[in-house]
Amino acid sequence: PSRPAAALLSFAALLLLPVLIESVFSISFFLPVNTRKCLREEIHKDVLVTGEYEISEQANTKTNLKITDSSSHTLYSKEDATKGKFAFTTEDYDMFEACFESKSPMGTGRVPDQLVNLDMKHGVEAKNYEEIAKVEKLKPLEVELRRLEDLSESIVNDFAYMKKREEEMRDTNESTNTRVLYFSIFSMCCLIGLATWQVFYLRRFFKAKKLIE
Fold it and tell me: Residues in domain GOLD (predicted)?
């Protein structure tokens, strides 16, 4: 591509770098034998999620991987997992959980911890633009423009979701304030009514005792 176009793409990529960082989830940790560790992440609706995992092998140890949503629907499951890939598309904004469970008849303390590497990508980063370029016969500049277009759309969707959440929270606050106001007025009326009844009751009581005329 020409220098102005390349500079424009570089500048746009720099602006969208935070989005790229947020859409990539990579972690490594040690999994003790006969234990279960879970990782959670919130992901928007209609988002492609891909992942790759690798678990170090240990004798007499079986490690299971299971990915579920907040409703306990299984999105990916693999028994005796060692190395592999997974992919799914979210149906709604939800909290997703990836759990690694190690099982061994040897007992804890006798088997070394397993090293687990997990790389998860979602949104734009999960798309294979090289494959898209081959299928649609796109030039390198067209591929970058497609990538930036998808990033821009992702940002717009994020802002739209944030705006929707802000509107929902504002409506909830306004509804709560209205209910509190009505409850306060009702409480005030009850207190005034109770105080008035108490004054008349005491007045009749004192008159009955001939303490006042």
Answer: 36-187
